Amino acid sequence: MSRATTRTPDAGWTDPECPVARTLDLVGDRWSLLVVRDAMDGARSFTEFQRRTGIARNILTDRLRKLIAHGLLARRTAPSGRRQEYVLTEAGRDLFPVVLTLRQWGERHAFAPGEARSTLVDRHGDPVPEVAPTGADGTSLDADTTHVRKAG
Fold it and tell me: Could you list the residue ranges that cross the membrane (predicted)?
């Protein structure tokens, strides 16, 4: 099991026992998830991230540092050997279902009917199917069919 952060339990988590709150503490701001999204789409350089997102240089510098510190991105020398590039770590790649689910929610709720939008496609060019959580028995899960079991 990988750890994406070095924070200790008393390091100021918003809600120390909640995985959702901890995840938001790590990547819950707009810019961090957009950097992760663009890294998933092939962005590697500071310039590419800035061009794709329109983020201010100082904010991008801060977010890249935080994503590296939390183990979501790694910095390495580019194949040209002349500059640094940023690549997703295993923990960063593990955010793919999160980004996919946010995308699909946005497709359903953030666009007017017929409004132009990008489409996520697989390696064959086919649109990625809707993600739907299911239980161990194959039944659909939603907020009405699940609950949180508190720690302790």
Answer: none
Decide: helix, strand or coil at residue 131.
coil
Beta strands (DSSP E) in the chain are 73-77, 84-88
Q: Which of 107, 105, 108, 96 is nearest to 41 (CA)?
A: 96
Mean pLDDT score, 39-48: 96
Asked whether the beta carbons of 34 and 54 are under 8 A apart, the reply is no
The domain defined by 19-97 folds into Arc Repressor Mutant, subunit A (1.10.10)
* Separation CA 93–CA 41 (nearest Å): 11
Domain residue spans in the chain?
19-97
User: Would you place residue 8 in the very low, low, confident or very high pLDDT band (cuts 50, 70, 90)?
Assistant: low
Residue with tokens 């709720």: 109
Cβ proximity of 53 and 32 under 8 Å: no
pLDDT given at position 1: 44
